[in-house]
Amino acid sequence: MNAMPNRRALEPTLAETVVDDFIRDGAHLFDEALDQAACADLLARIRATREFGSSLFLGEAEFDADPQYTGVNPKPGRNLLERFENRLGFVERAPHIVDALTTLLGPDYEVLNKKVVCGVPASAVPEWLRTRILGNPVNNLGAYVRPQYRDVTYFYGIDFHQDLIDYKDREADFLTLYIYLHPVSRADAPLYLLEGSHLLGGSVFPHNLTRIGDKDWLYRNGEHGEVVARQRVLTGGAGFAAMWHACTLHGTQPDAADHERISLRYLIARRHAGGSGMDQVNATLKGPLSLTATRADLAADGSAAIKANTVLKA
Ligand SMILES: O=C(O)CCC(=O)C(=O)O
Ligand SMILES: [Fe+2]
């Protein structure tokens, strides 16, 4: 008699929450932080590999002698995380992370890519380079970084984009898992997520966004319609983790602090269609699940062909 009410009936499970959050917001922010001691340890090891200052960069003449805009991101054989493979268990085996990934992608999910991402503070960017990149939509600084340091991705802000941007002709069958290794405040280039923007499916970069009010953006994706997307600034402590759909718009402003911001970024995909939470999510999208072209901002050599940036106005 008087049996305790079933806890599940009162509180949604993590699996239910994750799918609901992806359907509604195109993102899930984890309540539970990852192991802080493990974050601090990994962060110290990453910081010990180099000075995150102006010594990262080529000189102007050196750069101009042979500009390389492509192939400048981490890749197999040149990825700092390969050195720390045995120190990533606090992320990859955290039960709540595994649970959420399994729910969305099935038990045999696949890591497509993982890397260290660094938000570079203005003080570290040489004057000549700052002048050159001012107002560019995608300030991935890989082109200007000395080759031996290209085992990390360096940003001086990136405009609102979908992570589908790097996957022309691939279905949005993956998500991004993003982890802060130290506290990230407004000044530390926090991620700006546009909640609900995934609903319109894949869309060519740069995106059609008009600010409405303090926090919202009117986002149009051509014939696929429009949504009002709420801007969510992801400030958080060490071990803060979030994941978002490949069609969810997000970006960062340049790091305004006097030190770099260091995070981990994973792209993780399902291996089979059918039966996973991602199928449920994708069934609700009103736009395309894949794109034959993802961006219209680049010249043939991979350099920026347009000067425009929306996230700077956020
Ligand atoms: O870490 C950042 O500043 C932006 C990261 C991002 O959105 C990406 O790498 O796709
Ligand atoms: Fe991104």
Describe this structure in words.
- This protein is 20% helix and 23% strand.
- By secondary structure, it is of the alpha+beta class.
- Strands 1, 2, 3, 4, 5, 6, 7, 8, 9, 10, 11 and 12 form a twelve-stranded mixed β-sheet that branches.
- β7 (208-212) and β8 (216-220) form a beta hairpin.
- α2 (14-25) crosses α6.
- The structure holds 2-oxoglutaric acid and fe (ii) ion.
Radius of gyration: 20 Å
> What is the number of helices?
8
Question: N-to-C SSE series?
Answer: HHEHHHHEHEEEEEEEEEEH
**Structural class estimated from helices and strands:** alpha+beta
User: What is the β-strand count?
Assistant: 12
Beta-strand percent range: 15-25%
Overall mean pLDDT: 95
Give the names of the bound compounds. 2-oxoglutaric acid, fe (ii) ion
What is the helix content? 10-25%
**Segments where pLDDT lies below 50 for 5+ residues?**
none
Shape estimate: globular
What is the terminal-to-terminal distance?
56 Å
Instruction: Report the biggest beta sheet as strand number plus sense, adding barrel if it closes.
Output: 12 strands, mixed
